[in-house]
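INPUT
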Amino acid sequence: MADAMTSNAASAPAKTLLLPGDPRPPDLHVDVRTQELQINMGPQHPSTHGVLRVAIWVDGEIVTRAEPDIGYLHRCAEKIGESVSCIQYVPYTDRYDYLAAMNNNLGYCLAVEKVAEVEVPEKAQYVRTVAVELNRIASHLMAVGTYGLDLGAFTPFFYAFREREEILRLLEWICGARLTYNFIRIGGVMRDMPAGWAADVRKFLDVFEERLDEFNDLLTHNHIFVGRTANVGVIPPDMAIRYGLTGPNLRGSGLRYDLRREQPYLLYDRFQFDVPVGTGLKGQVGDCWDRYWVRVLEMRECVRIIRQALDQMPATGEIMAKNVRHLAFKSKPGEGYFGIENPRGELGYYLISDGGANSYRSRIRAPSFCSLSILESMLPGTMLADAVAIIGSIDIVLGEVDR
Amino acid sequence: MGLFERSLPDVQLFKIADLAVNWGRASSLWPMTFGIACCAIEMMAVGAATFDMDRFGAGAFRATPRQADLMIVAGTVNAKMALIVKRLWDQMPEPKYVMAMGACTVGGGPYWKHGYNVVKGIDKFVPVDVHVPGCPPRPEAIIEGVRFLQRKIMAKRVLAKGAEGTPDFTGISVSPGTVGILEPTVRMPAPPAAPAAEGARA
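OUTPUT
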């Protein structure tokens, strides 16, 4: 016994405890110590939103250390950006943040257009806005639906997917694909809106607003859901800035920063919309519920933006810039960075061009990657069951983390 | 089971028993929740209300390989992930089936040429039963893949003797209503005669 105790004490500091009412003298310590245990969450785990492995060390039920292990979905994004021409690379951008493929198309095309100095026609910009915002709703629906799923609420997932399928139907109508669109091209968009599409989008928006209320009744204000998420995983504003968080994760901490407002691209300076931030309605500012709530509120803002874009859109107009020759596209020599507001935060493409068809260097600034880096300092001290709630609340897409 | 199945006479009784066993296996496939990349989103769409794979008896998604018999590999598998996929396949109980979903798992897909890290097809390390191409495949394609797999399972021989892959249920009259959606009289195409030298080495 004594040997065992000393050998254990050598490896870990002994935690001794004398239970109250113990008849033994106080110098004889009863050894009740817990052992640190390492568990692996992932890469095959239903709540990691892809193939993320988090090595978690727990002491009892308290997480003492957490290390995300990434790279299970590394798909050579930046190297391919150098190997294929700018035009050919657009479909690849679909596959990085596959929940918001339209936004990825847009970010890359805007970066190339900035370097190559391409002027995009007004009509194309409006079509882009509508498509991107519809895609943002679909992405947020996925985020909130699967967040309920992570926490054990199965039904909201079906409600979220019902609306999502409607959006996918609309996007499929305009570009022919459900998930990987390749719709926004360098210099404009693939094709104009089909006849009747705008009316259908409006019809969907009317229905969607009502159904969002239904969704709120079902999940947002659900007592159990609030109990699992409020006051859990609080990110203070200074910590959010330090880790470079953007998007709903940053705004959930109460910081009003949206690239659509701060550095308007496309035609966002023409639209009226609010930038919702976390206010600590159910708990503290910056907890999991706030981040979730920001996403729900953002969907309403998307609806507002789409309505305004459809109202302001000119009936006819060019949808592709005149000076882009797609078969022999060559960028101008130079470099440029363009960041857009992805559903997950600032998605930036940094391109260097030497004047050829390919980029000399193509670097992607992925918002999920920055969000993921905060796990290491957020998880220690929380309960193990809350780890799932925290990972779900930062809404990562592993295709974008690993690239 | 190997000893048992080889020592039995080829009688109609065992054919009917086979039909029952296969019908049970084909109509209650339990897929594993295992999304890797983009295709996982379409796999979730198949599980959701609009496409509802439960209609075809394959909607009970399990989170652990030990409870599943169908592994839908949904997404790009790279060198780091391939080991995990293999381990998951090893952990699944027999009989087990693999569906390669999406162009990446079928043969590398868009990453075939420049994707230095991407495994060019998962059939390099696990036996694939159904390939479902597409980038990503539509939910209807996944359902078609599951239906194909069910037909394939229906054509397997469990108790009755006979050559592998050449099922013959023509002597049994089963109306389609008895087995629901499944057609029991599916004939698998005869395997092409492979060159002897290559086949022996492999």
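end of record. Chain A is about 45% helix and 10% strand.
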